[in-house]
Known about the structure:
The chain has one domain (26-163): Sandwich (Jelly Rolls), CATH 2.60.120.380. The protein contains 1 helix and 11 strands; from the N terminus they run H-E-E-E-E-E-E-E-E-E-E-E. The strands form 3 sheets. It has a 5-stranded antiparallel sheet, with no helix packed on it. A 4-stranded antiparallel sheet has the order 3-9-5-6, with no helix packed on it. It has a two-stranded antiparallel ribbon with strand order 2-10. It is globular and about 40 Å long. By secondary structure, the chain is mainly beta. The longest helix is centred in the first third of the chain and has 19 residues, at 2-20.
Amino acid sequence: MHSLFRFTLIAFCCLLLATAGCMKSPYFQKDVSVPQYEWAYNFQPSFKVDIEDTAALYNLYFIIRHTEAYPFANLWMYVYTKEPGDSSFQRSRIEIPLSEASGKWLGRGMGEVYEQRMPITRNDAPMIFKKPGTYELKFEQNMRVNPLPEVLQVGLRIEKLGYRR
Length: 165
């Protein structure tokens, strides 16, 4: 009886720790593998997202997985956005910091692979989608090196936060 209680208590604690450490489920997330782990200018991953709730606030994140052999401390890229009903994309250029000044990689690392999730909205503020419908986002690397080595995957994550007050 004593060992059954102990086993149950340990199992409960493990379950509690596992669920407490989980991230909130995203509204949308898609990751795309980069061919030969070299991100060329002409490889522009595209993401289509259906938005119906225009009263909600959303956080948008760029996800990158790279090896520790990635040769830079940052990543410059273009984000192209097309709203429902638009025929062309709007382009903005952003910088994604990948390491501290000391050279320590940001994000999470396992072995030689690091993953980082960075906000891609203006001033890291939540975003409001003004029109319902399908939005399209594309990413293009904009570094001086082409192709950009040691990039394994890139992706988009959207989290629904709640509603404006």
